[in-house]
Amino acid sequence: MSTQDDPRAAGGERPPTEEELRAAYEAELKRLRVEDIVLQTVVSFLNLGGRRAGLTPGTEDERDPEQVRLAIEATRALLPLIEAGLGPDAGHLRDALSQLQLAYTRIAGTSAAAPEAPDQEPPAPGPGEAQRSGRLWVPGQ
Q: How many domains does the chain fold into?
């Protein structure tokens, strides 16, 4: 684009100075709250986890169960910190987390499935062992 086509040049506007940019950044920092950043982070984890689970059309080749697991764990750690202040929107985030957890169980089960020796049975887990290990997600808990 030439300077003739640039609307800033026609209107006499100039790009902001470094001082103006710094002042705008400071004003933004004054306005921001930690809860805002935590919420943005949770939403980013859920979105990226959905991609890594292959839930977004065209991202099936990006499946990465470990990345999905990490997104779930990070969301589970951060969501309780901001949930009370979200009101009804908290339910939307919980629903998205549940969908991501279901997707994880599907993709982790298929990628972890390995052929077993024909004469061996896997050992039965002890009572409650899966839940104690922290690997089982129970809705509402």
A: 1
- What pLDDT, on the 0 to 100 scale, is given for residue 129? 43
Query: Cα(141)–Cα(134) distance, rounded to whole angstroms?
Result: 12
- Asked whether residue 44 is assigned to any structural domain, the reply reads yes
Collapsed DSSP state (helix, strand, coil) of residue 91:
helix
d(CA 68, CA 71): 5
pTM (two decimals) = 0.65
Residue pointed to by tokens 């697991």: 69
Tokens representing residue 53 in the block: 């689970």
* pLDDT > 60? residue 35: yes
Instruction: Classify residue 107: in a domain, yes or no.
Output: yes
Q: Angle CA(112)–CA(117)–CA(118) in degrees, nearest 5?
A: 125
Residue 24 parent element (H or E): helix 18-31
Whether 139 is covered by a domain: the verdict is: no
Mean pLDDT of 10-25: 88
Domain with 101, as residue range(s), is: 34-112
Q: What is the pLDDT of residue 109?
A: 82
Chain segment 71-80, per-residue pLDDT in tens = 999 999 999 9
